[in-house]
Amino acid sequence: MQTFFQQIINGLSLGSIYALLALGYTMVYGIIKLINFAHGDIYMLGAFWGYYVINVWHFNFISALLSAMLVGAASGVIIEYFAYRPLRHSPRITALITAIGVSFLLENGMSYLFTSNTRDFPQIIKQVNYHLGGVQISNIQILILATSCILMILLQLIIKKTKMGRAMRAVSVDADAAELVGININWTISFTFALGSSLAGAAGVLIGLYYNSIDPLMGMTPGIKAFVAAVLGGIGSVPGASVGGFIIGILETFVQSIGLSAYKDAVVYFVLIVILLILPAGIFGKNTKEKV
Amino acid sequence: MKKVVSMAAIVMTAGVFAGCSTAKTTTKGNQTTGNTIKIGVNMELSGAAAGYGQSQKQGIQLAASEINKDGGINVNGKKKKIKLVIRDNKTSNNTSASVAAQLTNNDKVVAIVGPATTNAGTAEIPNITKAAVPSVSPSATDPAYTLKKNGKVQPYVFRACYQNNFQGATAAKFMTNTLKAKRVAVYADNSSDYGTGLAKAFKKAYTGKVVDSQFFTAGDKDFNAVLTSFKSKKIDAIYAPGYYTEIGLIIKQARQAGINVPIVGSDGMADPKLAQIAGNNNASKIYYTTPFSDDVAKANPTAVKFMNKYKAKYNQDAPTFSALAYDSVYMIKQAIENEKSADSVKIAKGLAKIKNFDGVTGNITMDKEHNPEKPIAIEELTKGKVSESFNVK
């Protein structure tokens, strides 16, 4: 039983990272129907930014996290402006291929500039383990869970309660109609990219701190798994992405704990296939009307 | 995506066939003309294995510049300088094959150092065999790498490192005799032949009980789930063959989860980065098999010279991969000097006959299957520093 609860904790920590990433996918998809494959690499940029500011400017955790979110947001907006905006009226496959291209550019560009060596992330927070009835949880795991939850709630508030959030919802339902009632589409889409990418930037710093290892290709696999999480939750649905992320994290953990570690990635992709066949709209895809 | 891949495959095959036609000259293999000996480097300089490729490149460059400073390689009384042709195979099997074709046909190299990984190395074999140019891989460890399907040796394929069976069996003996471990969990990298091969070799040779056998993939960062299940199984030790990037994280996560049993691995761990990733306080009771231990090195003047020069040039301690790559270049030099010829076919013959070669990674003799026979040691890390080194017989 202790092992079981320990695995739940492991799964939740892993899942919260997937959830943060999945939110970015789902928001961008909701608004311009584009699967932004470069999203996982923005997470990598966030991690490298955190590495840099902590080592060189001696930032503390909070300022490193916030600045990485800003950097993530800025790079998301820049990518959207230069790579996706000129293609907004081209076929969707063009934009999709561009997204893959941007992803390769970021991965190989970073490898070229900073070498592809794995770096050890500075440990600004000392790990402390707490024991609760035989189950062990570290302060960093609590920090990751808490930060992810706070960011997800914040995101939900922005989408539901602010004017900008209403504009985002309007554009995602019907871009032309939204423009007719005076919503600046370009601005709204940029804002969506900024919001999604800032979450990826935050995830980068959290992962760096948790695993203590970053490299230019670190965004690849988590990026794809987060995409599966977004599809599982119902792509376009914000609560769906969070739930999907946690489900994938826990699923991966349990597959490993029952001794099938060699198939942990295969199981995640198998889930993707099953979902696409049986429930193409995802868990939350049909129930929720609002898409962001 | 599929279309792109098949297009690439067509282009690649076309390249191979094009190379085929130009290679049909009257004499077999590439000859050295002029005053330089061209040595090709087919290396993982970008992509997943770039960390190893880059360290190997540094070892190769150090060896070449050292040899050139002394005037070059003595070919039948005449000194010729080395010219390196370095090409990146991007850790891709396709690219490795085309790089090999380029090196042998266009650049006309007489020998190749690389690739670092068994997969990319195997992809290279058809092209170098066609061109009759030998290749020395510093770190392709799969037992079958130097062999053809029918079990005969590949005439142009050599390596500078141990093959898996030897390393896995050594680790197994060490577990039983020195650590007295009776229940062991195996946690191996299954994205490379290196990890799976070592795990297989270990399980074959280990006499105790393997209670659990799990796998991870290169690039994984989260090992908590498997480690948690190991923890509930009362193990005496963990055998984790793989590279330092993942093993470093496994050590960190195991220690943080309260698993304090010894963790034994392979030469892929022998890198100062291991302790950096794991954290010095976590890196205790860590053991790995290595050809290049500090103790062995201290008794070996060639190794001391190499380590000092490496530090002076790159400002870091020499990783095992650099040492193996450095040895690969010197093995080619030895072959040229013994055969008194820098023609590719002769070099291949010379490499097969290498005996008592005084390398950085020990005294090397090439066996029938083109595997180097050399001593092996096991190093122990305590608080991230090498604290002891065991000789395993």
TrEMBL record, chain A:
The biological process GO terms on file are:
D-alanine transmembrane transport; L-alanine transport; L-isoleucine import across plasma membrane
The UniProt record lists the keyword Transmembrane = yes
Q: GO CC terms for this protein?
A: plasma membrane
Organism equals Lentilactobacillus sunkii DSM 19904
Family membership: Belongs to the binding-protein-dependent transport system permease family. LivHM subfamily.
UniProt keywords (A-Z) are: Amino-acid transport, Cell inner membrane, Cell membrane, Membrane, Transmembrane, Transmembrane helix, Transport
Pfam families membership: BPD_transp_2
Question: Main localization of the protein?
Answer: membrane
TM region(s), chain numbering: 12-35, 65-83, 95-114, 140-159, 191-211, 226-254, 266-285
Q: How does it sit in the membrane?
A: Multi-pass membrane protein
Picking any one GO molecular function of the record gives: L-leucine transmembrane transporter activity
Would you tell me the protein name for this molecule?
Branched-chain amino acid ABC transporter, permease protein
Q: Where in the cell is it found?
A: Cell membrane
